[in-house]
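Re: [ENG-882] Designed sequences occasionally contain unexpected residues at chain ends

Forwarding the minimal case from QA. C-alpha cells:
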C-alpha cells in the first residue's frame, strides 16, 4: 500500500491593490494643482493667446481629471482673473525692488521703468489682459484678490514718484497721479512698440546689450521731462 500523501494547505493569493482611478478627486495627488494650472496657463497664454486657453485641455496636458481644475477655477474667467492678479503681484514686487534699489529718487524712478519694461516684454499677452481685454468687458465682477494686487502695484509706482517730488527732484506743479501716469504711459508704450524686436534678438547677446542701452536712454529722456 502506498503511503498517503501529506495534504498541504493551499497557498493564499494576494488580492491586487486597485489602482487609483481618474475620478474628479484623483487629480489631487497634485498637491499644488492650482499653481500648476496657473503656471501652465501662463505658458499657453504667451505662446498661443487667450483664445487657446481651455480648462479641459489644460487638465488633459497636466494628467489630471477634466473636472479637477474646476475646483479652483469654476470658469475660464476665474482663471483669467487669477492670471491677471498674478501679473499685478509681480508688478508690485518689481516696484518694491525699485524702491529698495537706492536712496536716490531718480535711481528709484529709473529702476521702476526698467522693471516695468522687461516685465511687459517677457509677458506681453498677460499684460494685455492686465490693462484691457475681456476681463473688463465680460460683466463678471473683479475678484478681491485682483483688486488688491492691482492697487498694490499702482501704489508702488505712486510712492516712487511721490518720493521724487518730496525730495524736490520731480515736478511738484503736477499732481502725483498725473506725473506717475505720464511716466507709466511712456514705459508701457515703449515696451509694447518693441515687443517684436525684443523677441527677435534673444539669440544675439550683442543686440540684447544694444537694446538694454536703448532702454536706459529712453528712460533718461522720460525722466528729464519729469524733473524740476
Amino acid at each position: 500500500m502506498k503511503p498517503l500523501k501529506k495534504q498541504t494547505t493551499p497557498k493564499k493569493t494576494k488580492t491586487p491593490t486597485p489602482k487609483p482611478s481618474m475620478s474628479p478627486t484623483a487629480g489631487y495627488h497634485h498637491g499644488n494643482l492650482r499653481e500648476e494650472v496657473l503656471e501652465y496657463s501662463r505658458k499657453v497664454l504667451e505662446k498661443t493667446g487667450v483664445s487657446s486657453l481651455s480648462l479641459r485641455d489644460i487638465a488633459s496636458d497636466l494628467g489630471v481629471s477634466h473636472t479637477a481644475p474646476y475646483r479652483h477655477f469654476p470658469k475660464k474667467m476665474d482663471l483669467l482673473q487669477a492670471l491677471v492678479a498674478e501679473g499685478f503681484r509681480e508688478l508690485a514686487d518689481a516696484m518694491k525692488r525699485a524702491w529698495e534699489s537706492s536712496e536716490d529718487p531718480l535711481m528709484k524712478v529709473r529702476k521702476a521703468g526698467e522693471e516695468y519694461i522687461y516685465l511687459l516684454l517677457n509677458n506681453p499677452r498677460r499684460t494685455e489682459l492686465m490693462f484691457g481685454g475681456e476681463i473688463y468687458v465680460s460683466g463678471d465682477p473683479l475678484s478681491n484678490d485682483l483688486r488688491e494686487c492691482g492697487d498694490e502695484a499702482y501704489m508702488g509706482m505712486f510712492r516712487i514718484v511721490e518720493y521724487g517730488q518730496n525730495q524736490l527732484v520731480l515736478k511738484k506743479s503736477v499732481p502725483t497721479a498725473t506725473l506717475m501716469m505720464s511716466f507709466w504711459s511712456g514705459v508701457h508704450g515703449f515696451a509694447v512698440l518693441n515687443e517684436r524686436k525684443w523677441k527677435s534678438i534673444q539669440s544675439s547677446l550683442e543686440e540684447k546689450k544694444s537694446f538694454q542701452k536703448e532702454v536706459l536712454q529712453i528712460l533718461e529722456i522720460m525722466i528729464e521731462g519729469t524733473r524740476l
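QA comment: On inspection the terminal residues look reasonable. Residues 1-7, 13-29 have pLDDT under 50 and may be disordered. Proposing we downgrade this to a documentation issue.
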